[in-house]
Amino acid sequence: MPQKLKILIAAAEAAPLAKVGGLGDVIGALPKALAKLNLDVRIIIPFYEAIDRKKYKIGFLKSIIINSDSRTYQQVDLWQTKLPGSAIPVYLIEHDYFKGENIYSSKLNNKIHKLYPCNPDDISKFIFFSLAVIESIKCLDFKPDIIHLNDWHTAPIALYLKSVYQSDNFFNNIKTLLTIHNLANQGITNSGRVNSNNFNSNFPSIKSDLEDGNINFMAQGIINADLINTVSPTYAKEILTKKFGCGLDKMLSKRKNNLFGILNGLDHNFFNPTKDKYLRQRYSLKTLKGKSINKVALQKKLGLPVDKNIAVISLISRLVWQKGVDLVNSELIEAINKPDGSCQFVILGMGEEIYEKKLKLLNKKYTHLVKIQIKFDELLAHLIYAASDIFLMPSRFEPCGLGQMIAMQYGTIPLVYPTGGLIDTVNPLEQNKTSSGHKNEEDGFIFQEFSTKGLSRVLRLALDIYYHDKKKWRSLQINGMKKDFSWENSAKEYLRLYKKIV
Ligand code: ADP
């Protein structure tokens, strides 16, 4: 029998053990689909203090010593469990770096907007994790053909393998794929790290990177990984442009023959209204009325006036510039809540202080119309997806986006800005056509003018259909719920890439 292809997926998050956003969802779901394609796939993540070792039955494997810089040797402990609901091994690396309540270190104010700021503690943490992954491989009974890297956090692995470990025969045949989940998250730090972390400052990719006095780990990954992909076909094209390239468009263009776009899928077991344990009432295409039971439960839970007929508009997101949450403001509430189409707004998210503050003020001002929940709450998120009618995703850019896909599975109609993966997943109602001119495949709305006015115009149109054209509304819901966002197709595309690499 031919040997199975061996893939080690290295990442900062893996749902349900450790999740902050879409990265966690992907790492928690893609491996299951890959395993069905007969790959030996395993995951390696940091053992964050917040991970519940009892709940996930995490067992000790062994301790290893790592030479983390030219002087210091550190012990890390390797642990192991299975990805819940599967037989996929998950290795966890324990070290003081991963202590604390949160996965990522505390927030910094985002002054550059287009790029996410990076806390220096995170840089230390993930450089160390990257090194520990490489060193762990020597001690595991599992030598991967490919290490699948995810975002800048594990991109240093590609750099280490091509530079520091190049002379070590053990690693000669190990290849890398870098998946870019968000190009705006780059892991930039000052040049001092190069020496303090055993990198070779004469290595060509480092030498050219250091010309501006900084080292950029996403850039190092882009240059040194064997292949690169991002999480939707449209975003793969967008990042080659100045507008979306976050300063790396030219570098990416040089590797455009090695850059692919593979759409993320959804875990249909976890995000599925017919078997979602978090819902007040489970429902399917045939029992769509169940949505209103969830709506009433949500209204009661949040203290909104109970009305199963009123439209509930939701947004579940990190509260950051990228996500366009600033478009949800008093102007929008006032424009929408005309007598012919009033509605309620429910927002769940956490993020930058400036957005959290503004939303809290909105909550205070429109207490009977708007409920803002500033927290991360998986259970509440599921209930909101099920209970609401329209899901807003006004992202300025969106590598793939999961929220719109989840919403569609729950019969909640997405209203999105057409960018990146939102273009690839939402089939918008053509707003200038009469009802008879529609194609009958539509499952959402888009707004073309990125402003509160642009958003409110389309939101009003959506509400008009919600209140006055039940048949059309139902067909939008049915189209979304029937859509296949399963990982199967995307996993096949990943397999194709893996085969290209080895
Ligand atoms: P990103 O990865 O950029 O944050 P995605 O749309 O790809 O955005 O994925 C976001 C994921 O995180 C979705 O599963 C969404 O439901 C979830 N999520 C975001 N914010 C919260 C929150 N405050 N509470 C619970 N789930 C959240």
Structure, explained:
There is one protein chain. By secondary structure, the protein is an alpha/beta fold. Helices cover 35% and strands 19% of the residues. It has 18 helices and 17 strands. It has helices at 22-36, 120-139, 151-154, 156-162, 192-196, 204-209, 217-224, 233-238, 249-254, 290-302, 330-336, 353-365, 378-387, 403-409, 420-425, 452-468, 470-482, 487-501, and strands at 6-10, 40-46, 59-67, 73-82, 89-94, 146-150, 175-180, 188-190, 214-216, 227-230, 259-261, 311-319, 343-351, 370-374, 390-393, 413-416, 445-446. The chain has a 9-stranded mixed sheet with strand order 3-4-5-2-1-6-7-10-11, sandwiched between helices. Helix 1 packs across helix 18, helix 11 packs parallel to helix 16 and helix 14 packs across helix 17. The longest helix has 20 residues, at 120-139. The radius of gyration is 23 Å and the shape is globular. The mean pLDDT is 93. The structure holds adenosine-5'-diphosphate (ADP).
